[in-house]
Amino acid sequence: MTNTREPLSIVTRPSDAVGNNLDWVSPEHPLAFVRDGDGIVGIGELLRLEFRGANRFTRAAEVWGEISRTAVVHDSVKRAGTGLVALGSFAFADSSDAVSVLLVPRLIVGSRDGIQWLTSITLGEAGGLPGTADALPTTPHQPHGEPVHIVFTPGEMGPKDFTTTVKAALREISHGNAAKLVIARDQHATLPANTDLRLPLEALARRYPDTFTFAVDGLIGSSPETLVRVHNGTVSARVLAGSAARGDDRISDGRAAVTLAASAKDQKEHALALASVMDALAPLSSELSAASSPFALQLPNLWHLATDIEGQLSHHSSALDLLRVLHPTAAVAGTPTPAAIRIIDELEGFDRGRYAGPVGWVDAHGNGEWAVALRCAQVAGSLITAYAGAGIVAGSNPKHELAETELKFRPIVEAFA
Length: 417
Known about the structure:
This protein has one domain (8-134, 148-416): Anthranilate synthase (4-Layer Sandwich). The chain has eight helices and 23 strands. The chain has helices at 56-70, 159-174, 198-207, 250-262, 264-281, 319-326, 337-348, 398-416; strands spanning 8-14, 32-35, 38-43, 47-51, 72-75, 85-89, 100-104, 107-112, 115-123, 153-154, 180-190, 212-216, 219-223, 226-231, 234-245, 285-290, 295-298, 302-313, 334-335, 358-363, 368-372, 376-380, 383-393. A hairpin with a 2-residue loop joins strand 2 and strand 3 (38-43). Helix 2 (159-174) crosses helix 8 (398-416) and helix 3 packs across helix 8.
């Protein structure tokens, strides 16, 4: 963890020079969390906070609270995501070797609801924004590097291993050890030297504008699932569980959505995921509500069963505090969660890293947006590892679940290829 006893100085001002947020992303170390043109991009790294183990969320909330209390903030925009902000991503498992991070950029380029801003963050003496465009270290629309065309190959959990593991998961379910288990698999590829990581990031944002496109510490992806969103005391989440491939034409596509909505297996999987989020948020929220039945969420490659949740925080909890009680949900682990985590650890046999962990941002007031890191890959030097998973319940078909993971790999495979 980068340590400093000096308080942070922050200046946020409106700007008309931002344009497209992603134009300011670093080609080597992208730092971004955007959806449909809105969001934040970080430039440079002022502070790196690292956490490991079972107390990673608690410790992150404590450290971030200390930094926020001593920060000197001059914010003329005063919106969620202005002032002091860190972007972060957290490991899925308590035992993971992957480090969980909060990154404080030197400069933030932000936009929301037609308002654009720049935030300068420095140590010690107050930082300034000498102007608008003058404060930016480069100009947008620079020529990008050459497109890469890479081929993913099976990782530690190949297709045959996956179907065998799904069968083992079904046995665990039939023995009453769990009601649902989420089994993941991985794929690997090698990146050419000096790959411009803006290209896959922009491809994801362009093809999946309604999802959260993110890049944090080498974790790049586009997630359709909101783990939690906190804005001025309002808490919301979107639960996804149950999926089906899109049809080849309008008629078959509509039939696929209707079939998904009528699927008892997918409805059961969704109900378990929804219950886990509602149960976690209920002690910290009032007026918590969700629709009585899920809706079919349309993505370019999949239909998902989805339910939106909204309520008011009844405690002074920050977005980081809520990560501790929400992660992992049944949508990415299973039910009951403690048993599911234990069984997953035994059956999968590989470290998920930060796949299916929280990824997003938090500000000094506790506001934040955190997605579940799905449809993503971890870039580590020349190695890129992509991940996908499927929820297994009684009645699941191993071959169908394998096909579902292939669909979920598509966003990353297409973005990099």
